[in-house]
Design brief:
The chain is mostly helical and about 200 residues long. About 75% of the residues lie in helices and about 0% in strands. The chain has helices at about 10-30, 35-50, 55-60, 65-80, 85-90, 100-115, 115-125, 130-145, 155-165, 170-195.
Length: about 200
């Protein structure tokens, strides 16, 4: 097996690692996600312009995908404001028992596979109320969107990189494997959440 390739620019790699390490705590302290993402993108863009300006010219930003996510999030916010998502929210149920948490996680995972995990979580967040329920919904939104290719931004970006490298996936195989993984991870993680003392 070949050894891993050396980074083209170790300094730029460290700057990127530092940016990734700071994003999580920035979200945790309650900073607006758009502000954190904008600051991180600006810092990485400036670092790249300083260290490897030619890389910026070759960078391919998936603008249609980005604008699509912004539009979906705005649509969900408008639908909530108009009171149009009450039926979807009610599907997630109430309560903090094992079955209640599995239901919240499962509905979030299923909705994520229909639309996408970011708007799905935003649509169902009012069904949270309790920290356990919110965590169950986060499990569903993060572990569940593995069945459809559009269920998460990570999957879309991964498929785009596969295509760019000349790799092709049979989507039905991806969906079947994703369904098995999603059911196992969502079920086990939610059961562990229900068993944990909070």
């Amino acid at each position: 097996m070949d050894p891993p390739a050396e980074p083209h620019d170790p300094v730029l790699l460290r700057i990127g690692m530092l940016g990734c390490a700071l994003v999580g705590p920035a979200f945790a302290v309650g900073l607006p996600p758009w502000a954190v993402a904008l600051a991180a993108a600006a810092a990485l863009g400036l670092a790249t312009a300083w260290r490897m300006p030619t890389l910026l010219r070759r960078l391919s930003v998936p603008w249609p995908m980005t604008l699509g996510f912004v539009a979906l999030s705005a649509l969900v916010a408008a639908a909530h404001a108009a009171g149009l998502l009450g039926g979807v929210v009610s599907l997630a149920g109430t309560g903090t028992g094992v079955g209640d948490l599995l239901r919240a996680a499962g509905v979030t995972a299923a909705t994520a596979n229909v639309v996408n995990n970011l708007p799905a979580y935003l649509a169902l967040e009012p069904a949270g109320g309790d920290p356990r329920r919110l965590l169950a919904m986060l499990i569903g939104a993060n572990c569940g969107p593995l069945v459809t290719p559009w269920a998460s931004l990570a999957t879309l970006l991964w498929l785009q990189r596969c295509r760019a490298a000349g790799l092709r996936w049979r989507l039905w195989r991806l969906a079947l494997g994703g369904l098995i993984c999603a059911m196992a991870t969502v079920g086990l993680a939610t059961a562990a959440l229900a068993a944990a003392r909070m």
